[in-house]
Structures are given as structure tokens and as C-alpha cells.
Amino acid sequence: MAKRKRQWSATEVPNPEQSVTGRLSPNVEQHQSPFRVPQSNNVSERNPQQRPVESTAVPPLVEVLPSITRKITACAACRKNKIRCDMPEDGPPCVRCRRRSLSCVLNRSLQSLVEDVKNVELVQSDLRNLHDTVDIICQHLDLSRPKALVVDRGKDRENIPVSGEPDREDSEGCEVSPPDSPSAVHAPIDTFLDIAKFGSPKSVESPPGRRASRATHGDDLITKGIVSIAVAEQLLHRYFSRLDHYLYGICSEHHDLHQLRTTSPILLAAICTVSALHDPQDQRYYAACNREFRSLVMRSMFEKRDVGCLRALCIASFWLADASRILCSDAIRRAADIRLHRSFDYLIGARDPESCSPSSANPIAAVDRVRLWYLLFVCDQHLSILHNRDSLLRSDKDIAVSWETYLHRAETTESDIRILSQVSLLLIMGQVRDVLGSDNQTPLPATLTHHITNYSRQLDKWFAKFSALFITNAYIGDFPRKGLELHYQFGKLYLGHQVFKGLHGNPIPMHFVSAANMAHDAAAGIYEMILNDNQLTNSLVGMPHYFHIMIAFAGHLLLEICHNHHEQLSINVQEEFNLIGAVLDLFRSQNCIPQHPIRRMAPGLSRKLSTCAAGLGIGSLFDGHQSSQNAYIATTGAQDLANPSQNFDGQPVQFPVDSTAPQMDDFLFGDIGEFTFPDLTSSFLP
């Protein structure tokens, strides 16, 4: 029987030229265009001068492949040999592979793979939208918020954008105004929003609340690897066991680490940042936490946030001097958006509970929101004093001027009394600023003398009223009472320093001499309290930055009075210089990181002290940091602190200047030179 010769089909003829072309063509095409992929498997649809070439290796170009119009129906073995593949309806193996016992693999179409990935992304986006909507509903009804999506855990969504995500910058803008609430009075902007949303192409896709932040869920300091769980627990313990009580326990109900990570990572970042600021061992943690906190604040600028974000901004405003004004301004804006002040009307019975939002109508939540509003008012007034600007919150709001109504509630706590004492004091100091004009550089007219006397009496009555109400705190001891005395001296200092405006070293007018003596006695009394009171000494690293800046201002004013008016006011200059030098030694001995205000203001005050001493030709400068403090203690002994102007014979004054100490930053004390002293431009900076 003759052996049959194999008949070669047109597609199976072993052509050497075709073989060479098959080996070289892919390289040539990739050299010309690395992403050039045929759009069709039909040979007749391609360039007739090009031969159909199939590569045995599929390059990893899935992400850049264009749309594929035909699905692959042949198995890999048949496609490799370019023969017809008879594939049954039930799938592999095909007839040829079954007959030859070959592995039959049917590659899925790249188009179907891309469609599957896109469908998964769309489903994930829909789930996130649904989760965010449920979260907003829970917040509005004061229910426990849902857990974070598992799909988002361990994944940095900022660096890995999700297709179809509704709150990307390129797909949606920021809202003109917050959504109106049922209890809100109709505002002019509401009409515009009602009209504009129907003409917006995204109105159907963007229901109210859809832009609620997702950045606050899933990612926090711990999941990002910034701090470990153990370090975070240490930072929280330091804050809640001590620091939070300087701020009237405003965050006492949020001490659980897991709760903070789940509900408000920005509040966790703020607490960790403030806590790390008050321990020299956590300098590297302070830098990392502060960087993360600022990042969260920036990312949330155009997003709706809850009370937790507002609380974080408020906490940071009291301690982070470099960003306090920005954070407080943002907090006040958010407080207005959520109508924080309405809870006060509910507490005093001025508003029907049915007309209030669920958060305002809840007694516990309403008290917390009122205390938070008062805290924002205090922070805003502090910054108004420190920076010579008008306050952002209106001081004539009912919630501010009706503080006595809140004070007389049966549920008033020790923290409430402390907060309201600040509100009452700052209302007086606000009147001083409005009447005497802190940003006016002209001398005060003599007609304002009786106003100064009146404000001084108001400060005396304020101190007498609240000093009888303060008690010892279980966490910070007698600091509330000592802090009240310090604030009383701050008020006298702020009132009395107004008479030095526009003098430029000229003698003080006789009708203002008593006010000038009041300012001098207050400044000296502040430094004597710091030096001789152990409670205040131990609280130097812990108290909010308002204390530190006012202490620095008191030293600055005291030095200027000694330099320009010591003869007219009969001041013992050597005694005052000894006092300031002793306090500066105390500042240098404090164990804190270089970013702390105590560490930053000591070098500037030392230079100012040296300049004044050299200008008056008294004292001597030599090495050693403890002799100033020792000289002051040796000469004062057990003198009564109520009389800060007692004379004594002291040792030669020395004013050490620590050249290795960190320099102060412009943003912390740059405004002190403008505290109505037009000729005091040196401030504390070199």
C-alpha cells in the first residue's frame, strides 16, 4: 500500500520567508509604536501588505489595549497552528485537542476582561455611595455610624483613584452653600440652589449629601503606618489624663482609640499631634502627626464634616500656635454650617424641640454642642486679642451674652463654670478693644479715663464672682484657680497697656499714670506668679498657647516700661530685670520639644532683656543660667506677692543669652510688636 503524502493547506505551508517575517515583524511594529495592536482578526481588513502574524507571547498591554470588536472562539493550540478549531457548544476541549490528547485552553477575550474589571469598579462605587448615604442618615438621626467598608481598608484611595468615583475633582465642584434643613429660615441662597440644581448636568447624579467625606473612614494614623497602636494609645493616654482638662474636658467622651479610628480619624490626628507636642520624647511623632493632621484638614476644606471634625479643629486651635488662626476660622465656618448655636435655644426652652434637628433636640448632644460653641467663642476672642483684629463670631449673639442663663442650669458642671468665666472675661476685654481701639496708634484722649476705671472695676467684680465658684480639679489640681488669677492679670495688662499708645518714649500723661501703674503691676505680678507658684510652673508645658503669648507680651511690656518710664513710675529696674531673668531661667529648664512656645520665646526675651540692660547701662552679662534665678530668690525671700513693687537690694543682674537655643518663628510673636506699641518693632526676633 502506497504511503499517502500529506496535503499542506494554504495556511500550513512552511514558508521560510513567512517564518522569518513572523519573527521580525513584532519587533518592527513595537519599535514604531509600542501600543499598536490590530483592531480585527480578519486578514482582509488589515493592510494588504502586512501578513497576519501571531505572537506566542502576549505582552502585558491590558491597560492600554483599545476596544476589541470580536471575541476569540479558537483554542490556543489551534490558533497557534492557524487551523480551524471545532469547539463544541459546551466548551473545551475541541475536536482536534480531544483526538490528540492535547491541553485545550480557550483564552477569554481581552474585551471581556476589561468589561469585568469596569463592572467591579462600578459596583464598588455604588456600594460606597450607598454606604455614605446610610452614614449621613445615621448622623442626622444620631444613630451609631456604620462600619467602614472592608474593600477600602489598607488601600490609599488618594493614590489609587477609583473609576466612577463621584467626588473626584474633575467630575464635581464644591457646593455653594450647605443643604437647607427643615428648621432653617428660608434664605436668599435657597432660591438660587433650587433653581440651579435643575439646570446642572450633575443634578441627577449628585443627591444632597453625596459628597460627604470618605477620607474620614478607613485611613488613619495607624493604618498609614505613621504611628503604631501602642504609640497611639500612649499619646491618647497623655492627652486624656492631663491635657484635655486644660480645655475643660471638651473631648472626654471620645477617649476610645477604636472609636476615634472608626468615626473621626481627623480628631485622632489632632489629639495625637497635641499630645506629642508636650513630650520631648515624641518630637518625631509630633512632626509626623502634625503633617498628617494638616493633610486631613486641607483635604476636607470643601467637604461636609460632622462635629468630630469641628472638635478637632477647635482642639488644634488652642495648642498649635502656627496654624491657630486658620483652624479657628475654618471651625467657625463649619459651626455656622451645622447651626451649632441652635442647641442653646433648646436648652433654655426658647425653641420647640420638634423644630430642632435630632442632634440639637438630644439633651446630651445639645449640651456638648453648646459647650463646643462657647469654646469656639473663647478661641476666637483669644485670637482677636493676640492679633489685634475683630472677632469672627458676633459678641452680641444671645448664646454669648446670655451666659448667666446657662450658668444657672441645674446640670452645670465644673467645666461649664470654667468656660463661662472665660466668656464673661472676654466680653469685657472685647469692650476694651472696641472702645479703646487696639489697632489705633494715636494716643488716647483724656476723656477715656473714666472708661478705663469702669473696665478695671468690671474686672475686679469678675474675679470676685468666679473665684468663689472654682474648685480643685482631679487631674490638674488647683490650676483652674491659678489660671483664673492669671487671666485676671491678663485682663489688667490688656486694659492698662492701652495708655502707652502713641507715646514713643514721651512721658505718660498724668491722667493715665494710674492705668500705667496697673499695667506694670499686672506684668510683674504675672512673672512673680510663674516663678513662685509650683502649680503654674508645672503647667507651663501643658497650658494652651494663649497663656504663653500673653506671658511673653507681659515680659515685653515690662521691659519697655523699665526702659522708658522707670523714673516717672518709680520702678526699681534692677529688681525687675532680676525677676525676668529668673523666669527665663525657669523657661530654659522646661523639658519640651523645640517646637513648644516656651522653648521658642525664651531666646527672644533674653535678647530683649540684654538690649534694655545695655541701654540703661546697668547689670553685666556673663555665663551661667542659674544665677539670675538664685539672685532673685535670695533677695525676695518670702515677700508678699500682692505687692510686686517692693524694693530690695539685689545682686548684679545677669542676662544669659543662649545662642544655641532655637529661634522663634515669625508667625508666633510677629504681632507683639504691633500691640499698640508703634516703636517696638524689634519684638523678639533677631
From TrEMBL:
Matches recorded under CDD domains: fungal_TF_MHR, GAL4
Record-linked PROSITE patterns: ZN2_CY6_FUNGAL_1, ZN2_CY6_FUNGAL_2
SMART domains: GAL4 (SM00066)
Signal peptide extent: none
Compartment(s) of residence: Nucleus
Primary location recorded for the protein, binned into one broad class: nucleus
Stretches assigned to the Zn(2)-C6 fungal-type domain: 74-106
Positions of region (Disordered): 1-58, 154-182
GO cellular component: nucleus
Biased composition range(s): Polar residues: 8-53
InterPro entries: prtT, Zn2-C6_fun-type_DNA-bd_sf, Zn2Cys6_DnaBD
Source organism superkingdom: Eukaryota
Pfam families, per the entry: Zn_clus (PF00172)
GO molecular function: DNA-binding transcription factor activity, RNA polymerase II-specific; transcription cis-regulatory region binding; zinc ion binding
Gene3D superfamilies: Zn(2)-C6 fungal-type DNA-binding domain
Ribonucleoprotein among keywords: no
Key words of the record: DNA-binding, Nucleus, Transcription, Transcription regulation, Zinc
KW Acetylation (keyword) present: no
SUPFAM superfamilies xrefs: Zn2/Cys6 DNA-binding domain
Gene Ontology process terms (BP): positive regulation of metabolic process
Record PANTHER family: FINGER DOMAIN PROTEIN, PUTATIVE-RELATED (PTHR31845), ZN(II)2CYS6 TRANSCRIPTION FACTOR (EUROFUNG) (PTHR31845:SF17)
Protein name: Zn(2)-C6 fungal-type domain-containing protein
Species of origin: Aspergillus minisclerotigenes
